[in-house]
Design goal:
The chain is α+β, with helices and mostly antiparallel strands. The chain contains ten helices and nine strands. The protein folds into two domains: 74 residues, 2-Layer Sandwich (Phosphorylase Kinase, domain 1), CATH 3.30.200.20; 191 residues, Aminoglycoside phosphotransferase (APH), C-terminal lobe (Aminoglycoside 3'-phosphotransferase, Chain: A, domain 2), CATH 3.90.1200.10. The radius of gyration is 23 Å and the shape is globular. The N and C termini lie far apart (59 Å).
């Protein structure tokens, strides 16, 4: 609290109420409300400087100095709106972020080969894992509810893995001759709770931001939201503002279609819940991806 007061005193802010909100603290002062939180790392300032140079200022105003251990920003109140609309509005802003920060990085085949090998190794591991699990389950005289649920949907798991394997080969053929890669500023922590809509739109929680391929913002958001919302409309909204290149889109579809490893530990109820959620994600992903392959 003393470090908070040191920063507040520097800006002649007199606090009269503190409220903990997640990892941040909301502070009421005579001059309005502010948010303060400890910084996770020191290179956020480079991203913020780059955003400023690209005329992207859709984040709360930062008052504290870059060398401070804590970040003090203005507090912006969230307008009352449905989460589905917030998600679409956030895509407008993410599309703008990627558009304003695009540059092309010189690369060689080794950079694409690393992505290829990482994804390929993951596919092969999952194929082996699910083959082994299937052999164990099918050897039993009586299956538990979770085992039956797994076996009943095993073909869907393998279908997703074979799709990813086939598409990965096509993607690698496309990119291994390329010598440039499109890079953007990735917020890298997209979530509905990190988007604020008021008189304007704002993204908060930039502490994980970095430079990278644009699809990784979409991929992480997909993993967080696809089970709850229709991602088809979200993706269309993003591409309306920032169309993906053919190889980027193919890699994105591979990553979202790649099923998770199912953990068979826990109670029978917990295992059924986990398997149902993972299988439901596969079906939703199939509905999302299939129209782009027809």
């Amino acid at each position: 609290m003393r470090k908070y007061n040191e920063i507040l005193n520097r800006y002649n802010l007199k606090p009269h109420r503190y409220q903990l909100i997640g990892k941040a603290t909301l502070i009421d002062t005579d001059d309005g409300c502010f948010v303060i939180k400890e910084k996770n790392r020191n290179d956020d300032k480079e991203i913020i400087r780059y955003l400023e140079s690209r005329s992207f200022d859709y984040y709360p105003k930062i008052l504290s100095d870059t060398y401070d251990d804590y970040e003090l920003t203005e507090y912006i109140e969230q307008a009352n709106m449905p989460d589905e609309q917030k998600l679409l509005d956030m895509m407008d802003l993410v599309g703008l972020l990627h558009s304003k920060t695009t540059y092309y990085k010189e690369v060689d085949e080794a950079e694409y080969k690393k992505i290829y090998e990482d994804v390929s190794n993951n596919i092969e591991y999952l194929l082996g894992y699910y083959n082994d699990m299937a052999a164990i389950v099918e050897s039993k005289v009586f299956m538990s509810p979770s085992e039956y649920l797994f076996i009943r949907n095993l073909s869907k798991l393998f279908s997703s893995l074979f799709f990813c394997k086939q598409e990965l080969e096509k993607w690698y053929e496309m990119v291994k001759v390329k010598n440039k890669q499109r890079q953007v500023v990735l917020h890298n922590n997209l979530d509905i709770s990190h988007f604020i809509r008021n008189n304007s739109s704002y993204l908060i929680s930039w502490d994980k931001s970095k430079m990278g391929i644009p699809i990784f913002d979409l991929y992480k958001l997909y993993r967080r939201t696809a089970n709850e919302y229709d991602f088809s409309e979200v993706f269309k909204r993003y591409e309306r503002n920032y169309p993906l290149l053919e190889d980027e889109k193919k890699l994105f579809f591979i990553l979202v279609a790649l099923p998770d490893k199912i953990d068979f530990s826990g109670s029978e109820y917990e295992k059924c819940l986990v398997i149902s959620k993972k299988i439901n994600m596969i079906f939703k992903t199939e509905l999302f991806v299939t129209p782009y392959y027809q």
